[in-house]
Design a protein that fits this description.
single chain, 388 residues, alpha+beta, Butyryl-Coa Dehydrogenase, subunit A, domain 1, 4-stranded antiparallel beta sheet, 3-stranded mixed beta sheet, oxidoreductase, AcylCo_DH-like_C
Length: 388
């Protein structure tokens, strides 16, 4: 399946055969199973849960993890899958991210052997869905200020509090809940969503990520056994290690949305005629297309570089912040430029551009806003924290 962008930019030459296989399978899945239905799903705010076992059958769920039924693929292969799924719609890269990079990674990194054995194979097979509840209603950028509490009651733990913008919570079978204990230490808990006191309510009225589910979660006296605690998670480093996995996927995914917008604009520039010639023959249009290609190419090369660093175990949180900040920012600009080249048609569902543009506004906010990633980089540059 040849893309128009490949006429100039040959990323495939930098990939291994195995990576190209993952890429092509994800591209085929996206074009055959997601693209034909995504406009209807967005219009109806419908999460097509029937695709979950199909994604699992392809090996995409938790694919970067090893053991417990996960595929054990490399970081670049995982990034390429994120790229192809988000080229169809951000909702499906988000699903793979929440399931694999957040819920499964939390269990894989911080869980007991019993927790891993119980949950990871089910999640990898798509027989169970997971969610990851960190953000709270008062804001997500300051998780140290969380108010959700976990108190001891005999041998049990009891959770009380609220979370917001929690992906998949209303369809999840297990939730990774982050709460502060009586010593003010952030702890992780595995909460089956059938537990009394756990309530997830989908957030209505979204103008972005409409084919996905984000929820308000209420925890009202949720009683858990001691085996619910993630034993390897103590403090904010627990959720942050998972967030960095998700942020890495966004570096690739946002460029997938950008590619889809660029392809739409390029195809239209070749066929739409104004003043007796295709608009692609006009200097200003060619200049805009060239600028879009350059930023896309730079974003993809950065993603590939970060992937190779990750595979060597050398990727730092600051480098991930560079990637997340750049990819989303440039993807939004490419989407805006594509919308302009499409003229009035660019605001219709005849083209995917406005859908991607709306989704990218959410991607810009979650897993760290632009401002938070700038502060992470500012601290790395100056040695001075400026978060408060």
């Amino acid at each position: 399946m040849t893309l128009l962008v490949d006429t100039v930019f040959d990323l495939d030459a930098l990939l291994t055969d195995e990576e190209r296989d993952w890429q092509q399978r994800a591209r085929a899945f996206a074009s055959e199973r997601i693209v034909p239905v995504i406009d209807d799903d967005v219009e109806n705010e419908y999460f097509r849960q029937s695709l979950v076992p199909e994604l699992a059958a392809e090996g995409f769920l938790g694919m970067h993890l090893t053991g417990y039924g996960a595929a054990g693929a490399g970081a670049v292969a995982y990034g390429l899958v994120c790229h192809e799924l988000e080229a169809a719609d951000s909702a499906w890269r988000t699903f793979v991210s929440v399931q694999g990079s957040l819920a499964m990674s939390a269990i894989h990194k911080h869980g007991s052997e019993e927790q891993k054995t119980e949950w990871l194979p089910q999640l990898a097979r798509g027989e169970a869905i997971g969610c990851f509840a960190l953000t709270e209603p008062a804001g997500g950028s300051d998780p140290a200020a969380m108010t959700t509490r976990a108190r001891r009651d005999g041998d049990d733990w009891v959770l009380d509090g609220a979370k917001r913008w929690i992906g998949l919570a209303s369809v999840a079978d297990v939730a990774v809940i982050w709460a502060k204990d009586d010593d003010e230490v952030v702890r992780g808990f595995l909460v089956p969503t059938s537990t009394p006191g756990f309530t997830a309510t989908p957030i209505a009225g979204k103008l972005s990520m409409r084919a996905s589910i984000q929820c308000d979660v209420l925890l009202d006296g949720v009683r858990l056994p001691p085996t619910a605690v993630l034993p390897g998670a103590h403090g904010l480093s627990g959720p942050f290690t998972c967030l960095n996995e998700a942020r890495y996927g966004i570096v690739w995914g946002a460029m997938g949305a950008a590619r889809s917008c660029f392809e739409a604009a390029l195809g239209r520039a070749r066929t739409r005629e104004v003043f007796g010639a295709p608009i692609g023959a006009r200097q200003l249009v060619q200049g805009a297309l060239a600028d879009m290609l350059v930023e896309y190419e730079k974003g993809m090369l950065l993603a590939l570089h970060l992937g190779r660093l990750k595979e060597r175990g050398a990727l730092t949180p600051e480098q991930i912040s560079v990637g997340k900040l750049n990819s989303v920012r440039e993807a939004l600009q490419i989407a805006r430029d594509a919308r302009a080249l499409l003229g009035g048609d660019g605001v219709t569902s005849d083209y995917p551009v406005m859908r991607h543009l709306a989704n990218l506004e959410s991607v810009r906010t979650y897993e760290g806003t632009d401002e938070i990633h700038k502060l992470i980089l500012g601290r790395a540059l100056t040695g001075l924290p400026a978060f408060s």
